Amino acid sequence: MLIGLVAALVSACGRGEAASQAPEGAMGLLLVAQDERTAAPAITGDGLTGGSISILDYPGKLVVLNAFASWCTPCQRELPILVAAQKAYPNVQFVGLDVKDNDEAALGFLAAEGATYPVIKDPAGDLLAQFTMNPTRGLPVTFFIDEQGKLAGRILGEVTTDNLETALKSFM
Predict the structure, then answer these.
(1) Range of 145's domain?
(2) Which parts of 9-149 are beta strand (E)?
(3) Residue 12 CB partners (closer than 8 Å, separation 6+)
(4) Which of 15, 37, 66, 115 is most solvent-facing, going by the fewest CB within 10 Å?
């Protein structure tokens, strides 16, 4: 367990509270029981390719909100997994939250992997800060918002095929 925590600390791209200060059990996949879910923050912002995007734009769909930055190494490793999952789960809405990043770098990063889902810009990290399920305030982090707009879970740290599949299958 200590080795896993050290690896998470070394690979984390976050700024702010250190991952080592996160509550025990806070790292990795967390699924919230349906009766314990709370409303997700109503995240709305400028889209990376223009217009305005809100996670409330997808009522009745499971939303996978991935907070990333093009300069984040774990974010770079997880993007192909997210792109593949978007294709494998067409009834799930994937949305990106581009945190503290350069627009051109983010667009190039997403295009290189073929990511086509909508992305909300978060230049100061203010939108990400609204999610209290991110105890480290670091990147990457992925939130699952159920069909009723409630926080159903999160992956703190890098998405893997295994933890993403586990989460998605739990909601199906």
Answers:
(1) 2-171
(2) 28-31, 44-46, 52-54, 62-68, 92-99, 119-122, 141-145
(3) 19, 74, 136, 138, 139, 157
(4) 15
Question: Could you read off the pLDDT tens digit of each residue along the chain, which spans 172 residues?
Answer: 333 333 333 345 554 333 333 343 446 899 999 999 999 999 999 999 999 999 999 999 999 999 999 999 999 999 999 999 999 999 999 999 999 999 999 999 999 999 999 999 999 999 999 998 776 678 999 999 999 999 999 999 999 999 999 999 999 8
**CATH code for the domain in which residue 68 is found:** 3.40.30.10
Q: Record the pTM.
A: 0.85
In the numeric block, which tokens belong to residue 167? 């989460």
Helix spans in the chain (H): 2-11, 73-88, 103-113, 161-171
Considering only CA atoms, which of 59, 25, 45 is closest in space to residue 125? Answer: 45
Q: CA–CA separation, 62 vs 43, rounded Å?
A: 15
